[in-house]
TrEMBL record:
Protein's UniProt name: Phosphate-binding protein
Organism from which the protein derives: Bacillus weihaiensis
Subunit structure: The complex is composed of two ATP-binding proteins (PstB), two transmembrane proteins (PstC and PstA) and a solute-binding protein (PstS).
UniProt keyword Aminoacyl-tRNA synthetase, yes or no: no
Gene Ontology MF term list: phosphate ion binding
Keyword tags: Cell membrane, Lipoprotein, Membrane, Palmitate, Phosphate transport, Signal, Transport
Length: 335
């Protein structure tokens, strides 16, 4: 009997211990599961917060040259695929008009088809703006005529001067060559706010007045329509706009310094054989925007990293790879 009581007591104690152990394990598992869930939730929240903080957003204010605009538009489109919350629309006020907005602190980036002028530099300094110039591509300023023009096969710089400089007379093709038609030439030129106009003025007009009959426009597409719509039309604009409309236009070979008539092509622009109408294209960046706006810094970095490919795609000529590398190092130094 005593042995039976002792056995019963032992069984009861064992059962209690087993029950307590089971409860303890469940509690521990519950605590572990709770902690794991909490930690997972906190971890996910932390990652989401980090991703949100890393995601760029804002607007990059850009204006300037209509010649550089096709590169900028391609860059903005590709950049939006990586950073959809960053807006980077491209304005086309012309190089001069773009610099006016840049100096007024209305833009972060100014696209230019010529270097900044001394008076523009001075105005920027007086406005307290520090900026950096980046070269993005080469362009061959293209002289074009109507597709029906079957007599003009080349022009010299002197021919261009005779045609485009105002001298008080109605300009006819026969003024350049008596074998050409005695018909009035119709001129289409970028507007005076355009860097393309400035470059043509410097190289061809040499600061003389452009023909008064010339139709001026900051929109290169307007110039294309003007030349294609008049059999006696002649105009000039960036190489990309010629390529885009080459089926409807005839490009004119220009006699270079070596006496050779050369058409603008990627090869002749890059080699310098297409002179004197080859030129570099630029963007000017407000240094304060680089330092204070992460999305502007990332946009300019993306621009320089992809300019070679995108400039070529839209019809311009890329710089040597080492020039982009050097400029990226310059950009990094501005942060």
């Amino acid at each position: 009997m005593k042995n039976f009581k002792f056995l019963a007591l032992s069984i009861m104690i064992s059962s209690l211990l087993a029950f307590a152990t089971a409860c303890g394990n469940e509690a521990e598992e519950g605590a572990t599961e709770g902690t794991t869930t909490e930690e997972t939730t906190e971890g996910a929240t932390s990652e989401e917060t980090s991703e949100e903080a890393a995601e760029l957003e804002g607007e990059v204010a850009i204006d300037g040259s209509s010649t550089v605009a096709p590169i900028g538009e391609a860059v903005s489109e590709e950049f939006a695929g990586v950073h959809p919350k960053v807006q980077a629309p491209i304005g086309v006020s012309g190089t001069g008009g773009g610099f006016e907005k840049f100096i007024a602190k209305e833009t972060d980036i100014s696209e230019a088809s010529r270097p900044i002028k001394e008076e523009e530099k001075t105005a920027a300094e007086e406005a307290g703006i520090e900026f950096t110039e980046f070269k993005v591509a080469f362009d061959g300023l293209s002289v074009v005529v109507n597709k029906e023009n079957d007599f003009l096969d080349q022009l010299t710089v002197e021919d261009l001067k005779k045609l485009w400089i105002e001298d008080g007379n109605v300009k006819k093709w026969s003024d350049i060559n008596p074998d050409w038609p005695a018909e009035e030439v119709k001129f289409f030129s970028p507007g005076t706010d355009s860097g393309t106009y400035d470059y043509f003025n410097e190289v061809i007009l040499e600061d003389e007045q452009i023909v008064k009959s010339a139709q001026l426009s900051e929109d290169d597409n307007t110039l294309v329509k003007g030349v294609t719509g008049d059999k006696n039309g002649i105009g000039y604009f960036g190489y990309a706009y010629y390529l885009e409309n080459k089926d409807n236009l005839k490009v004119v070979p220009i006699v270079n310094e070596a006496g050779e008539a050369v058409e603008p092509t990627n090869e002749t622009v890059e080699s310098g054989d297409y002179n004197p109408l080859s030129r570099p294209l630029f963007i000017y960046v407000n240094n304060a925007s680089i330092k204070d706006k992460e999305h502007v810094y990332e946009y300019v970095k993306f621009y320089l990293e992809n300019a070679a490919e995108l400039a070529t795609e839209v019809g311009y000529v890329s710089l040597p790879e080492e020039e982009y590398t050097t400029q990226l190092e310059t950009l990094e130094g501005l942060k």
